[in-house]
Amino acid sequence: MALTKKDKIRLVSEYEQLIKDSLNMVVLWYDAIPVWESVAMRRQFRNNWATYKVVKKKVFSRAIESLWYNVDLSKLPSSVSVLFLQDDWISTLKIVEEFKKIWKKEKALSKLEYLGGWFEWNWQESDYVSVLATLPSKEELIWKFMYMVKYPITWFVTVNSNLLSWFVRVLDQIKEQK
């Protein structure tokens, strides 16, 4: 069904607001995603403070042009969606990677591929986004840091307790000899 001019104007203003509210955006190509998986994806994205929208390319281009500069999205494939990212965007990209792994494992027809994205107002190609998706999330980094801080202390306590028990055994052996 074709959109009326009124609908397009409403969509442009909606996209503009989403762009203004987001820190970064990732453009994705999708194919054959069932409704229930799309709903599950959107729910996980919402829990991560991100918004996933299937967009009309021309209308989305107008929204970007009104805020930034001329962008040619006509080269992109027909089925395009945008992930508007807020706070912890690495975790959000990990959700995309998780769904891609599940679909690959199940040999499903569903596909989701990075086409690129705007990070700090600069367009980056799909390779850049793929590398970002492989980085550890904020929670993983905090966990690893806490482990690295805790490990020397734990090791020190373990070694000292072993030394103490070893010393007590030696004293017991000396006592038994006398």
Summarize the structure.
Helix content is 61%, strand content 17%.
- Compute the number of strand runs: 5
Shape: elongated
When the domains are counted, the total is 2
CATH architecture of the largest domain: 2-Layer Sandwich
CATH topology of the largest domain: Alpha-Beta Plaits
Characterization of this structure:
With 178 residues, the chain is an alpha+beta fold. It has six helices and five strands; from the N terminus they run αβαβαβαββαα. The chain has helices spanning 5-21, 35-47, 57-67, 89-106, 126-134, 138-177; strands at residues 24-31, 51-54, 80-85, 111-119, 122-125. The longest helix has 40 residues, at 138-177. The termini are far apart.
Features:
178 residues; single chain; Alpha-Beta Plaits; alpha+beta; five-stranded antiparallel sheet; 2 domains; 6 helices
